[in-house]
Design brief:
It is built from six helices and no strands.
């Protein structure tokens, strides 16, 4: 996976649209939606966007605000099992379809998202 290529293709605007489409689904999801407090939904969306911009575009915002990602530690308070990881991936796949992420990078993004989702499992 070439992160720079993915970032060049999607750019900040593409990652912003992807995260918005993803969180639109989170709001109504019965399995993982309850993990996201309504009052922090915009903050969660911003954190995911900033993380993806950091990961793929070396954008400094995420680290400036939050430091090292420590994703597993940050997700430890939430019960995340196989069902939650799979649902997260389903919602992200739907968001990629909605925002028309180019096929040339979808497989690499799916591989990355799959690794992240399964690394968050703690159940």
């Amino acid at each position: 996976m070439d992160e720079a290529v993915i970032y060049t293709i999607l750019g900040e605007a593409g990652f912003t649209k992807l995260c918005a489409a993803f969180y639109k689904r989170i709001k109504t999801d019965d399995l993982i939606g309850p993990m996201y407090p309504e009052e922090d939904m915009a903050g969660a969306e911003e954190r995911l966007r900033d993380f993806l911009l950091f990961r793929f575009g070396n954008d400094p915002r995420y680290q400036a605000k939050r430091g090292h990602p420590r994703l597993r530690m940050r997700h430890a308070p939430f019960a995340i099992g196989e069902a939650e990881a799979v649902r997260w991936l389903e919602l992200m796949d739907a968001a990629m379809d909605e925002t028309k992420v180019p096929a040339s990078i979808q497989m690499d993004l799916r591989t990355f998202f799959t690794m992240v989702a399964h690394n968050m499992k703690n159940q």
